[in-house]
Amino acid sequence: MSSITDLIRKEIENLSTDATRTNVGTIATLADGVARVEGLSKVMYNEMVEFPGNILGIALNLEEDSVGCVILGETSALKEGDEVKTTGKLLSVPVGKGLLGRVVDAVGRPIDEKGPIDSDISYPVERIAPGIIPRKSVTQPLQTGIMAVDSMIPIGRGQRELIIGDRSTGKTTIAIDTIINQAKINKKGEESGDPDFRAVYCVYVAIGQKNSNVARTIKVLEETGAMEYVTIVSAPAADNPANQYLAPYAGCAMGEWFMENGMDALIVYDDLSKHAVAYRQISLILKRPSGREAYPGDVFYLHSRLLERSARLNEDNGNGSLTALPIIETQMGDVSGYIPTNVISITDGQIFLETDLFNKGIRPAVSVGLSVSRVGSAAQIKAYKKVAGKVKLELAQFRELAAFSQFESDLDAATKARLDRGARIVEIFKQTAFNPVPVEVQTAVMWAIQNDFFDSIEVSKIAEAVDSLKEYLYTQGAEACNEIYTSGKLEDGTVEKLRSALEDWKRTQS
Amino acid sequence: MSKDTKALKIAKGLLLLSLNNEGKADQERVKEIISELRKEGVSKSIPILQHYLTLMKRKINSYQGVLETSSNENSALSKIFSEKLRQAMGNKIDLVQIKNESLIAGFKLRIGDDVYEDSLSSRISRLKKSLT
Asked: Which of A211, A300, A459, B80 gets the most CB atoms within 10 Å of its CB?
């Protein structure tokens, strides 16, 4: 009881008794979450403004005789003639470890009914991206746990890798798998007590999604124990376009806190197509001139300024990183659309998912030909680099030959061998959702492919064999795997242990 | 140039014609301008009048202030505020005093888009905000 009265007394003592000065205006028009305000002559660009009932807005259009503001809340209580005040502050969101395990809205308010956010620090949602000097090359891998990605399209900490594909091709699944894998690695690293271990904290930004989808994602993350390392920023389809526009910037500010404090973070923007649509809606209501596909002229800047904030900082700046996995939804596999081409050009590579592959049961449906990581093998551990170097080429050759061989009845031995190898690799890369594979096990499986351990197994039984091999590697082959995990290399001794474990496993298969 | 931009440009010109030597709006001149505008058709005059009204409001607000107090009208208080404002802003501000009991105590002064407030109700709402 006394603590409450002390708190109130303290607040009264600290209360400023100076006269306040505010700049005000009145709502002239109000439509679709955007208000045109007359007055507000001293408002700053991107400044937070206050509408009656503590409803916040942001000044986005500063015109000669009015100000265009997007409203971040319920607009039904607002009406023409209502007074709007400047606040002198830019929109900020809470940041820090207190947000881990929480679900917040676009302005950082909790929406998970778990009480207030435990954070004293806040960052403005719009910030300038790190410049050239504080940055460093991407060298440290960020394991997704998906064999097709980690072997052929490796992602590094601080990289921006786009996940692109049609609807229902497994884009979100790749992102969620990556988050789950980070949580698994974090737990293992924390248990090992390694002082050099660097955990990866995750931010998942859901933009314009159905609430049921967001709820499903939260459930998966909770069931897999990943939620304690994740912050979810949700601006669902039912939310106003202003919140959908702001959510990625808010999530980015939360991720930046980790980066600037010498930690590693991963941010998923799911998805930026809907983000561009929300921004187009706001821009059209604000009467900004529209261009191609009715998007405003600055739609490239909308995404470039967001994705440039992901970086790997050098040692002088804390050595932190923020990796971004933006998602883009294409229409009928068309990657030449306006928004897809924009984001492709901004990011450091893309994972392209094909509907045809997905429907054939090849999941994750990664298109080898169209997917690329501009960081390349620099973001792979040495052991993995050694075994996965040729896989992409082999698989690409297989896809080409497979199409060609449909018309050929008589194939030469070399072509037949390539087709056999390719068909096996395709089967090995098939992976169920929310089941990431640790890098050491991936390395061992890849080593087994390169050393012909799967050649005698029928293609139709490969998936079953891979599952049994993984199980074997977790148990009897754990020693070799642990050596790969700790050293990151495939030394002669490790190779011998791995060979002997695989030979033992092979005997169980016959 | 769009129709709206043209109307704004004309309204700005009309505003200049409506001001007297002191830079304040002259009622007679305003009446004349409105009667001249009436002669043009509705479709032409309405957009100009809308801009003219907005600009005129802004102009009047720049030299006319509203002083809200919790007590009854007090000419001495108005004079003190007028004098202080003249010293601070360099030009004379015409003050209109109105009673606003919701302030509880203190004052609220509005000049143009700026609102200066030192009232008990504003302090209470600040305290409420800091406690929630």
From this structure: A300
